[in-house]
Task: structure prediction
Amino acid sequence: MIKKAILPVAGLGTRFLPASKSIPKEMVTVVDRPAIEYVVKEAVAAGIEQIILVTHSSKASIENYFDRNFELETSLEHKKKFDLLKEISEILPAHVSVISVRQPQPLGLGHAVLCAKSVVGDDDFAVLLPDVLVKENTAENDLARMIRRFGEAKAAQIMVEAVPEDLVDQYGIVDVASSPNEGESIAMQGIVEKPAVGAAPSNLSVVGRYILPAKIMQLLEKTPKGAGNEIQLTDAIALLQQAEAVEAYRMKGQTFDCGSKLGYLKAVLHYGVSHPVLGEDFKTMIRGLEL
Result:
């Protein structure tokens, strides 16, 4: 059973400048909580019990957010603000731990994952890219389904979603024999980075969620630098495919790219209108806007 998840958060967030100049992009709020909390909650809902942050010296606020703040908790208790106290004390369940390791150099996603090797050990694990939020419409989330499928098929799982045919040149596209139904997996032949429109092997793009076997760490150690002079996770996955099956899992949920400004605004709208407390007032406010 997958119990560990790696969240690479060491990036400088250049797509989100100027905000990310002083605030980690993962800490920019979506409605009333930082974006990274949604990703952590997604992992916890899928059964993850250890969150491994691969971080940078400028990202201490992320670690602090998931730590206890006794002064704040005591102040809220004395002021009898028990609803707020409950909210901050339940950010992370008691059985879930968050630890961090440093990525000393920006050498790519594959290198970031490799930085967690000593913590992962011989365990299979998940990777969640915190730029991407996955909004679920069902009780069981997509990550949980990927974990279950990994256990059944003993094959690495790569989450994908369908994108418009005219936009395939903006994504990593998986090469598959046919498109699976939502919530199902299919063996894939590889990943083609930003193929030309009309030449893509499918319209299924890689989302940023992976379930990987422990052996991928050994492959990452052997993976030479690729695109951008960085160690690419997709290159290590290609090496893995030479020895065993890798499957593309087609998601049921909806994604939001919070690493981009428009994607972030879209996320705020969608999470805002569905917020249990603010949702109805937010909808009314939107209707009243003079655009």
Q: What stands out?
A: Residues 4-155+206-287 form a domain with the Spore Coat Polysaccharide Biosynthesis Protein SpsA; Chain A fold (CATH 3.90.550.10). The longest strand covers residues 185-193. The two ends are 50 Å apart (CA to CA).
